[in-house]
Amino acid sequence: MPPQLSEITCLSNLSRPKKSYYMVDDGPSTFLQNFQGSCDHTAAVAVYERLDFDVALKAGFGLTWKDSLDWCQECMDSGGRCGYNETRPEDQICFCSDTNRLNSCFYSKRNEAFVIGITVALICLPLICGSLYFCIIRRNRLNNLIFKKKNEIARTIEAFLDACDYLGPKRYNYSALKKITNSFSEKLGQGGYGAVFKGKFPDGRLVAVKVLSDTKGNGDEFINEVASIGRTSHVNVVSLLGFSSEGSKRALIYEFMSNGSLEKYIHSENLKFTLGWEKLYQIAVGIARGLEYLHRGCKTRIVHFDIKPHNILLDQDFCPKISDFGLAQLCLRKDSIFSAIDTRGTIGYIAPEVFSRNFGVVSSKSDVYSYGMMILEMVGERNTSHSCNKSDSEYYFPHWIYEHYHQIGHMEGFSVTIELEEIVKKMILVGLWCIQTIPGSRPSMSRVVDMLQCSVDDLEMPPKPTLSSS
After folding, report:
1. 384: in domain
2. What is the pLDDT of residues 37-51, one digit of tens each?
3. In a domain, 331, yes or no
4. Active site residue: 214, 306, 324, 457, which one?
5. Is residue 306 annotated as a catalytic residue, yes or no?
6. Mean pLDDT of all residues belonging to the chain
7. With pLDDT > 90 as the criterion, what percentage of the chain qualifies?
8. Cα(436)–Cα(284) distance, rounded to whole angstroms?
9. Where found (predicted)?
10. Could you give the angle at which helices 397-408 and 365-381 cross, rounded to 10 degrees?
């Protein structure tokens, strides 16, 4: 503090936080005397930063006291100090920590927040609008591509149907399908390419209608089904009774199979759905005959590429019928070879050559492998022996059944009578022959039918399967 300023000590007696008050030494002698007593009121006067404190005091100032200053209270509540304009004393000023404002420092902060908000909005608004525009344009382009693709698929299907209009089943419009299925009210199941609904023809025949999803595939599954099943007529192949194709809406109409799929019976723990060995054997023979017909009996040979229990349907008499030809391929030559890229299937039933050409070429023998795995699965699910632990990660039924059959020579591990033992043995031997790693070592389906119908003593023991699940 400059030396010419003297502290006024009388205010130190006030019951409030200690503050320092000063006067100019060269002021009137009576000035100091006036402060010898107690002080009733104090006033805080703001000083501009450009003035020295002692200069401001020497210059003097006018002080007007009012009992109530609402604007001053508002200024102080906001953290400021009350004051007046230097050039226009009638204008009050609130001295804030950052700058001088009218009435309140809060006004400054609210204005600042408002300005910041407007600035951020002006910066973000173009970015948001640009992003929305980009998303809309991109979505429109994607929708256009999807629409274009659907139109191309529809044109491809129509061209196919026009080319074979004289063949195959009847075509229905989509409104007729809604009547047949009672507006798709009773759903039977859900497959990889769509949902299946129960329906009824006007003559009372029950049918199954598979509505294909327009989001999967490129129409090949529809063409495959119509082209393959539409050319077939066999007791062990499901009948395609009709179809519908209107733009992206496509559906297939099959004969109704009241007992569902084979999968329900070989994997169920409910005794109600358990099939006896004789019935399982008849189903195995029926499936073999159906595949033999597809491979050799059709005018155009067909390879299914997805033989598994789920795709074997059972009618009211448990007669098996091969279904779901969505992955099927037609063979125009006697010994057609397929590209592994164009073939697919279900894990657990796919032949090794489908994964790698090192095992051989993809052909109708790929169906033979799938059939063998399915037959062994039918046998394995009827196994009531506890001699193998199915929770063991090393458990692989083809190896287990091969070792037990070869070493023991009888079927003590299965709930079979002596009369049924030959049936089970034949199913096991046929299954083991069908899953040989090299396609050339597998029998044809014609040979499989013969093996199932001959005596088990006429069948040789196949080599042990070389592939393992471990």
Report:
1. yes
2. 455 555 555 555 555
3. yes
4. 306
5. yes
6. 76
7. 30
8. 18
9. Membrane
10. 70
CA gap 384, 170 in Å, rounded: 47
Q: pLDDT digit string (tens) for 128-179?
A: 877 777 777 766 666 555 455 555 656 665 565 655 654 568 889 999 999 9
Count other C-beta atoms under 10 Å from residue 427's C-beta.
Answer: 23
CATH at 415: 1.10.510.10
Q: CA-to-CA distance for 405 and 332, rounded, in angstroms?
A: 40
CA separation for the pair 6, 14 (Å, rounded): 18
Report residue 128 as tokens.
Answer: 């948001």
Residues 332 and 293 in one domain: yes
Number of domains in the chain: 3
Q: Which two tokens stand for residue 179?
A: 């009547």
**What pTM did the predictor assign?**
0.65
Same domain, 372 and 420: yes
- What pLDDT was estimated at residue 325? 85
289 plus 215 within the same structural domain = no
Q: Whole-angstrom Cα distance, residue 348 to residue 452? A: 23
Q: Is the residue at 414 inside a domain?
A: yes
pLDDT at 468 over 50: no
Is the Cβ–Cβ distance between 307 and 291 less than 8 Å? yes
> What is residue 189's predicted lDDT score, i.e. its pLDDT?
85
The count of other CB atoms within 10 Å of the CB of residue 92 is 16
Neighbour count for residue 217 (Cβ, 10 Å)? 18
Alpha-carbon 274 to chain mean position? 35
How high is the pLDDT of residue 439? Answer: 94
- Does one domain contain both 174 and 58? no
Cβ atoms 8, 22 nearer than 8 A:
yes
Q: What are 460's two structure tokens?
A: 């040789």
Could you give the CA distance from residue 290 to residue 237 in angstroms, rounded to a whole number?
A: 6
Instruction: Write down the H helix ranges in 164-188.
Output: 174-180
Q: Which amino acid is at 301?
A: R
Q: How far is CA 101 from the centre of its chain?
A: 59
Q: Dig out the tokens for 288 from the structure.
A: 């073999």
pLDDT at 319: 96
| Residue whose structure tokens are 């059709």 | 298
Q: CA geometry: angle at 434 spanning 228 and 288, to 5°?
A: 45
In this structure, the answer to whether residues 425 and 447 fall within a common structural domain is yes
Residues 15 and 48 in one domain: yes
Q: Are residues 227 and 289 in the same domain?
A: no
CA dihedral 43, 46, 51, 53 (to 10 degrees): 40
Q: What is the CATH number of the domain that holds 237?
A: 3.30.200.20
Name the CA dihedral angle for 226, 231, 233, 236, rounded to a multiple of 10 degrees. Answer: -60
- Of 208, 237, 255, the last residue of a domain is 255
178 is in an annotated binding site: no
Q: What is the rounded CA–CA span in Å between residue 147 and residue 152? A: 9
Looking at the fold, whether 168 and 240 belong to one and the same domain comes out as yes
Residue 230's domain spans which residues? 164-255
